[in-house]
């Protein structure tokens, strides 16, 4: 491979802001794997956000790149998987599997798409120093004839359209809007764009905690919600406490520690069979966790806290929730899924059809 921009490339990133800023270029925020695609003839490399190759996990995308992208190019975008008209991150995550036979099976069962939103090189020309407006025009020209599973991300400079997308696109599984200054040069691994994500709150049961990597202080609280059968399901964690607060929480939660945890609703978490039969338990092994210590301290599920979250992935929080406050006025039994706001459904094909 001999391109003017060579792999690996760490993509340009975005920092969070509360509102959509005016006077910029706007796109949906895709909930998938960020990926930079390099093509030089038959040679194709798909690099992850960290620069590690994803090529072997998405053979159907590699084949589409060879058929549909320009002969020599470097394209920034997002790998996504759709199911029932919306993005499905869980199914996308299943694609990272060590067995080639499993990868091939999933490529047929849950094929991925690549949504392109920036062009870093075309032919012998590197475009990193070109302003966004020029790169976007070059992207639209170079990819004018692409078809599924490759797409060009819809974009607009109309802030009112962006605000409408912010509300509509969530129903298709996107998780917000990305705003980019019009004169922005491409700077790998720099947070120069802006992301605006949905934020909601929920009252959840605190049913355990994990220690922080720095020592015997709280790293994250394990959160639960009751399903329609009354069973407490693990829905995620909240974190981002100060060092002082982590130490305080150990003392504060000490009276609730269950040792042994036999009567805890999630006591079977260490049994592999339990993860297969239960809806949601903490500590489930995954290809992402590797050798990470997933053990946790069980607490009597008696305390309730309010957390901020952006959106759900199935029956759990898609990202780490943010602790807001304790809710002594709420009973654990009152914390169920029914309190969660559901976005209005919006078909992913409508998103990809553009403004």
Automatic annotation (TrEMBL):
Signal peptide bounds: none
Single GO BP term:
DNA repair
**EC number assigned by the record:** 6.5.1.1
State the similarity comment: Belongs to the ATP-dependent DNA ligase family.
- The yes or no answer to whether the keyword Repeat is present is no
Q: Which UniProt keywords apply?
A: Ligase
Q: Which reaction does it catalyse?
A: ATP + (deoxyribonucleotide)n-3'-hydroxyl + 5'-phospho-(deoxyribonucleotide)m = (deoxyribonucleotide)n+m + AMP + diphosphate
Ribonucleoprotein keyword on record: no
- Name the CDD domains for this protein: Adenylation_DNA_ligase_LigC, OBF_DNA_ligase_LigC
Q: Where is the ATP-dependent DNA ligase family profile domain?
A: 105-227
What InterPro entries does the record point to?
Answer: Adenylation_LigC-like, ATP-dep_DNA_ligase, DNA_ligase_ATP-dep_C, DNA_ligase_ATP-dep_cent, DNA_ligase_ATP-dep_CS, NA-bd_OB-fold, OBF_LigC-like
**What GO molecular function annotation could you give as one example from this UniProt entry?**
ATP binding
At the top level of its lineage, which domain of life is listed? Bacteria
Q: Which organism is it from?
A: Streptomyces kanasensis
The protein here is known as DNA ligase (ATP)
């Amino acid at each position: 491979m001999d391109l003017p921009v060579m792999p690996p490339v760490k993509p340009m990133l975005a920092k969070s802001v509360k509102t959509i800023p005016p006077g910029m270029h706007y796109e949906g925020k895709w909930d998938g794997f960020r990926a930079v695609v390099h093509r030089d003839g038959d040679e194709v490399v798909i690099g992850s956000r960290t620069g590690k190759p994803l090529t072997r996990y998405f053979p159907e995308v590699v084949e589409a790149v060879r058929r549909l992208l320009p002969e020599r190019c470097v394209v920034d975008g997002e790998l996504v998987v759709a199911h029932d008209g919306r993005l499905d991150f869980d199914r996308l995550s299943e694609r990272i599997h060590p067995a080639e036979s499993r990868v091939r099976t999933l490529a047929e069962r849950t094929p991925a798409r690549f949504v392109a939103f920036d062009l870093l090189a075309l032919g012998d020309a590197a475009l990193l120093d070109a302003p966004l407006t020029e790169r976007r025009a070059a992207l639209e020209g170079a990819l004018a004839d692409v078809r599924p599973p490759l797409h060009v991300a819809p974009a607009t400079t109309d802030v009112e359209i962006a605000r409408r997308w912010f509300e509509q696109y969530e129903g298709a599984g996107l998780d917000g809007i990305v705003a980019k200054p019009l004169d922005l040069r491409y700077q790998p691994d720099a947070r120069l764009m802006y992301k605006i994500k949905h934020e909601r709150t929920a009252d959840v049961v605190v049913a355990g905690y994990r220690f922080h990597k720095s020592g015997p202080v709280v790293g994250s609280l394990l959160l639960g919600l009751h399903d329609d059968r009354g069973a407490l399901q693990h829905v995620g964690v909240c974190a981002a406490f100060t060092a002082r607060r982590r130490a305080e929480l150990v003392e504060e939660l000490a009276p609730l520690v269950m040792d042994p945890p036999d009567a805890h609703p999630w006591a079977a978490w260490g049994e592999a069979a339990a993860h297969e039969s239960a809806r949601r338990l903490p500590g489930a092994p995954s290809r992402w966790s590797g050798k990470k210590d997933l053990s946790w301290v069980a607490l009597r599920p008696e305390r309730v806290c309010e957390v901020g979250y952006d959106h759900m992935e199935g029956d759990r929080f898609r990202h780490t929730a943010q602790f807001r406050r304790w809710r002594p006025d709420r009973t654990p039994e009152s914390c169920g899924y029914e309190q969660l706001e559901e976005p209005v459904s919006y078909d992913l094909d409508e998103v990809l059809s553009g403004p």
